[in-house]
Design brief:
The structure holds 2 protein chains of 2 kinds. Chain A is an all-alpha fold. Chain A contains 19 helices and 4 strands. Chain A is globular and about 80 Å long. Chain B has a single domain, classed as Cytochrome c oxidase, subunit III, four-helix bundle (Four Helix Bundle (Hemerythrin (Met), subunit A), Up-down Bundle). Classes of the chains: A mainly alpha, B mainly alpha.
C-alpha cells in the first residue's frame, strides 16, 4: 500500500486505489490515451467535463440566438439561416417546428449538459480531492465512467439534431401526452426516442458521479480535515451530490413509465386522447399529471443541483478576495442543508395551475416561501463578508459578486412566483422566464465563470488574460440584466412564453420593439462569450505562467500542491490540516493556510 | 476557532466501497419510492383494476429469503477461509437468484392466464405498474447474480488469492438489500397498495 493508506487510516482501500499508488511518486508512464482520453485522474476528468460543457454552452447559446432572431425579427428573412438549417429555415425564416425544437434543446442542454454536468461535474471533480486532501476520488474508475456516460449522452443528444423528423420539440420538461405519442408531432418521433436515451445515459452518469463525490468527501479527507473544517465549496458540492443521488432516480422512474407508454402500449400518462390524423387512441386510465409529479420531484432539486455549486464557489472566492473570514460559516452550512431539505418539498409549485388541490397548494406555497429564509441568510453572509473587506477585484471575485447580485434580483421574483394566487396570472409567462434565467441560469453561469477564472491557474498553471476577463464580466453582467429585466414587464402584462409569433395577437404586438431590443442584446452577449472562450483556450497555451504556488494567497489545500500537480496531487505525503479554511486577516496576518499548525499565541481558535 | 473539539481521529472509517454501496442503495430506494408513490397516486384515481397476486409470488418470496440465508452463510464460510464451502454457497445463492427471477416471470404468466394484461394496448395501469416495478426489481436481482458470478470467478483465481472480505461483504450487503426490497414490494402489493 502507498503512504496515503497509512495517512488516511483506511487500510485495505482496494485495488482501484492500489493501482494509483505509484502516480504520487511521478514515475508512472502515461500514454496519450490514458492521460487525456480515458484518464482516471480527477483533474483531467474535471477538465473533460468543463470543455464538453463549453461545447454544449456554445451550441445551446447559439440556439437561443436563433430563436431570439425569430422573436425579435419575425418578419425579416435571413438567407444564411437556410444555409445552416436547410429545410428548417426555408426562405431564411425559422419554421415553427424548428423554433420549438430549438427552444426545447436549448432548455435541455443548458439545464442538464451545461449547468449540471459542466458546472458540478467540472468543479466536483476538480476540487473535491484537492480541497479535502485526497489523491483521487474514492473510485477513479467510476469517475471515468461517469464522464464517458455523459459523453455518450452528448453524442446521442447531438445526433437527435440531425434526424429527419428533427429533435424533440415539446419543451425541456417533456410532458406527456405530447412526448408520449409519436403521432402527436414530428419532434415526438425519433427525436424523442433519442432524447430519452440521452437523458437515461445522463442520469446514469450523474448517479455514478454523485456516489463518488459523496464517498470521497465523507471517507477520503486528510488527517485533521474534519467536516467543520471543509471549505464551503466542498459542503456545497456535497449537498449537490446528495440532491442528485436522491432525485435523479425518481426522474428515471418517470422516464421508464414514459418509455413504456411510448413503446409498449401502457397507459400510465395517457387517457382519452384523439389525434387528428390517427383518431381516438385506445389508452385509458392514465394521468398526465403523474408525470409532472415525478418530473418535478427531480426538476426542483435540479434547480439547486445547478445553484449550490455556484453558491459554494462564490463563498470561497468572496472570502479569499475580501481577505476576510467567511461570515457565519456554520450558518452557511446550515442554510445549504435547509435548502436541500426544502428543495425536496416544493416541487408542486411548478404545478399550481394543473388543478392541484388548493389546500395542498397552500402547503407548497408555505414551503416555497420558507426557502427565502436560508437564501436570505446566505445573501446576508456574502454581503457581510464583503463589508469592510480588503477587496481585490480579480475576475473571479467580480463574477462571484455578480453572482450575488443576480441571485438577489432573481430570488426576489421567486417570492412572487411562489404564491399560488399570483401564479395564476404569472404562470407560463415571460415573468417565469426572467425569474429562472436570472436566478438559476445566469447566476450559475456566473458562479461557473468565477470558478474558471479563480481556479484556472491551478488547472493549467497559467493565468487568463485579465483585460479580456474584465470586458467579459461587465458586458455579460449588463447584457444579462438588459435581456431579462424587460421580460419581467412582458410577463406582468401577461405575455405567454413558448409562442412562435405574437404578430397577430393585439395585446402583445406592442412588445415587438422590446423583443427586438432583447434579441439584439442576446447577439452581443453571445459574441462576448466567444471572447471568454478565446481567452480560455489561448491562455491554456500562451497565458502568463504561474510562478508561485499560491497566487491568490488562499488557505485551502489545492494551493499546497505543485503548480502543475501530477496524478496523486501531492508528490510527498498529503499535508495535515490544522484549522478551518477561512483564517484571513487573523492576528494581523494576511492569511494562514489550513496546513499551518495553530500557534500558542493565536487569538481564539 | 470553535471547531477545535470536532476533529475526529480519522480512523476505523467504513471502507469507501461499502459506503458507496450504501449511498447507491439509497438511490435505488428513491427510484422504487418514486414508483410506489406514483402507484398510490394513480390508484386513487379512476379506472383502476383490482386483482389478487398469484400464489407463485409467495414461493418466490420464500426463495429470495432462503437465498439471503445462504448468502449470509457464504460470507461466514469466506471469513473462516473455508473456500470450498464458500464457493458452493455462493453458487447456491446465485442459483436461487435465478430461480427467483424465473418464478417472477411464472407469476407474470399466471396473471396473464387470469386475464390481467401487464403491457400493451388494453393493459390497465395497475397491472403495468406491477409489471414495471417487479421487472425492475428482477433486473436488480440479476445484477446481484452477475456480481456473485464475478465473486465466484475470483474465488477460483489461483495466481492472486485474495482473502480480503470487503468485496464479498459488498456483494452480500447488496444481496440482502434486494431481498429486503422485494419483501417491501411484496407487502406493498398485497396489503398497502
Amino acid at each position: 500500500m502507498s503512504n496515503e493508506a497509512v495517512l488516511h487510516g483506511n487500510v485495505g482501500v482496494g485495488h482501484s486505489h492500489d493501482a494509483h499508488a505509484d502516480h504520487g511518486h511521478g514515475h508512472h508512464h502515461e500514454t496519450f490515451i490514458t492521460k487525456y482520453v480515458f484518464s482516471q485522474d480527477h483533474k483531467m476528468i474535471g477538465k473533460q467535463f468543463l470543455i464538453t460543457g463549453m461545447v454544449w454552452a456554445i451550441l445551446g447559446g447559439l440556439m437561443s440566438v436563433l430563436f431570439r432572431l425569430q422573436l425579435g425579427y419575425p418578419d425579416s428573412s435571413f438567407p444564411w439561416l437556410e444555409d445552416i438549417l436547410g429545410k428548417w429555415a426555408k426562405g431564411g425564416h425559422i419554421s415553427a417546428e424548428a423554433y420549438y425544437a430549438l427552444v426545447t434543446t436549448h432548455g435541455t442542454v443548458l439545464v442538464f449538459f451545461v449547468l449540471t454536468a459542466g458546472l458540478s461535474g467540472t468543479f466536483s471533480n476538480f476540487l473535491i480531492p484537492l480541497q479535502v486532501g485526497a489523491r483521487d476520488m474514492a473510485s477513479p474508475l467510476m469517475n471515468m465512467l461517469s464522464y464517458w456516460f455523459f459523453f455518450m449522452a452528448s453524442v446521442v443528444m447531438l445526433s437527435s439534431l440531425f434526424v429527419e423528423t428533427g429533435p424533440f420539440s415539446g419543451g425541456w420538461t417533456a410532458y406527456p401526452p405530447l412526448s408520449a405519442l409519436g403521432d402527436a408531432s414530428d419532434g415526438s418521433k425519433t427525436g424523442m426516442d433519442l432524447w430519452l436515451v440521452a437523458m437515461a445515459l445522463f442520469v446514469v452518469s450523474q448517479l455514478l458521479a454523485g456516489l463518488n463525490y459523496i464517498a470521497t468527501i465523507l471517507n477520503m479527507r486528510t488527517k485533521g480535515m474534519s467536516m467543520t473544517r471543509l471549505p464551503l465549496t466542498i459542503w456545497a458540492l456535497f449537498f449537490t451530490a446528495v440532491l442528485g443521488v436522491l432525485s435523479f432516480p425518481v426522474l428515471f422512474s418517470g422516464f421508464i413509465l414514459l418509455i413504456f407508454d411510448r413503446n409498449f402500449g401502457t397507459s400510465f400518462y395517457l387517457s382519452d386522447i384523439f389525434i387528428a390524423s390517427v383518431g381516438a387512441l385506445p389508452n385509458e386510465g392514465g394521468s398526465a399529471i403523474l408525470y409532472q409529479h415525478l418530473f418535478w420531484f427531480l426538476g426542483h432539486p435540479e434547480v439547486y443541483i445547478i445553484l449550490l455549486p455556484a453558491m459554494g464557489m462564490a463563498s470561497e472566492i468572496i472570502s479569499t478576495n475580501a481577505r476576510k473570514p467567511i461570515f457565519g460559516y456554520m450558518a452557511m452550512v446550515g442554510s445549504l442543508f435547509a435548502i436541500v431539505v426544502l428543495g425536496f418539498l416544493v416541487w408542486a409549485h411548478h404545478m399550481f395551475v394543473t388543478g392541484l388541490n388548493p389546500f395542498l397548494g397552500s402547503i407548497f406555497v408555505l414551503m416555497t416561501l420558507l426557502i427565502a429564509v436560508p437564501s436570505a441568510i446566505k445573501v446576508f453572509n456574502w454581503l457581510t463578508t464583503l463589508w469592510r473587506g480588503n477587496i481585490r477585484f480579480t475576475p473571479g471575485m467580480l463574477f462571484a459578486i455578480g453572482f450575488v447580485s443576480l441571485f438577489i434580483s432573481g430570488g426576489l421574483t421567486g417570492i412572487w412566483l411562489g404564491n399560488s394566487a399570483l401564479d395564476i396570472h404569472l404562470h407560463d409567462t415571460y415573468f417565469v422566464i426572467a425569474h429562472f434565467h436570472i436566478v438559476m441560469g445566469v447566476a450559475s453561469m456566473f458562479g461557473m465563470f468565477a470558478g474558471v477564472y479563480h481556479w484556472f491557474p491551478k488547472m493549467y498553471g497559467r493565468y487568463m488574460n485579465h483585460t479580456l476577463a474584465y470586458t467579459h464580466f461587465w458586458l455579460t453582467l449588463i447584457g444579462a440584466y438588459l435581456i431579462f429585466w424587460p421580460m419581467h414587464y412582458e410577463g406582468l402584462a401577461g405575455m405567454p412564453r413558448r409562442y412562435y409569433d405574437y404578430g397577430n395577437w393585439e395585446s402583445f404586438k406592442q412588445f415587438l420593439e422590446l423583443n427586438r431590443f432583447i434579441s439584439t442584446v442576446v447577439i452581443i452577449v453571445f459574441c462576448v462569450q466567444l471572447l471568454f472562450l478565446f481567452n480560455f483556450f489561448y491562455s491554456i497555451f500562451k497565458g502568463r505562467k504561474v510562478t508561485t504556488l499560491n497566487p491568490w494567497g488562499s488557505n485551502t489545500l489545492e494551493w499546497t500542491t505543485p503548480i502543475r500537480p501530477g496524478h496523486g496531487n501531492w508528490p510527498g505525503e498529503i499535508p495535515e490540516v490544522h484549522r478551518w479554511a477561512y483564517d484571513y486577516g487573523k492576528d494581523g496576518q494576511d492569511f494562514i493556510p489550513q496546513t499551518t499548525p495553530v500557534g500558542d499565541n493565536e487569538s481564539h481558535h | 476557532m470553535y471547531m477545535e473539539n470536532t476533529v475526529s481521529t480519522e480512523r476505523k472509517r467504513i471502507h469507501p466501497h461499502k459506503f458507496t454501496l450504501w449511498v447507491a442503495m439509497g438511490s435505488i430506494v428513491m427510484m422504487f419510492a418514486g414508483l410506489t408513490s406514483a402507484y398510490i397516486v394513480k390508484r386513487n384515481q379512476s379506472n383502476w383494476l383490482e386483482f389478487g397476486l398469484p400464489a407463485v409470488f409467495w414461493y418466490s418470496t420464500a426463495v429470495i429469503i432462503i437465498s439471503s440465508v445462504t448468502m449470509h452463510l457464504a460470507v461466514k464460510a469466506f471469513k473462516a477461509k473455508e473456500m470450498a464451502r464458500y464457493r458452493k454457497l455462493i453458487t447456491l445463492t446465485a442459483g436461487l437468484g435465478l430461480l427467483f427471477a424465473g418464478l417472477q416471470f411464472i407469476g407474470f404468466s399466471a396473471l396473464h392466464k387470469n386475464g390481467v394484461q401487464l403491457f400493451g394496448i388494453g393493459s390497465n395501469p395497475s397491472a403495468s405498474f406491477l409489471g414495471i416495478i417487479t421487472g425492475l426489481h428482477v433486473l436488480h436481482v440479476l445484477g446481484g447474480v452477475v456480481a456473485l458470478i464475478v465473486s465466484f470467478a475470483r474465488a477460483f483465481r489461483v495466481r492472486t488469492r485474495s482473502y480480503a472480505a470487503t468485496p464479498v461483504e459488498v456483494v452480500a450487503t447488496y444481496w440482502h438489500f434486494v431481498d429486503i426490497l422485494w419483501i417491501y414490494l411484496f407487502i406493498f402489493f398485497n396489503w398497502i397498495g
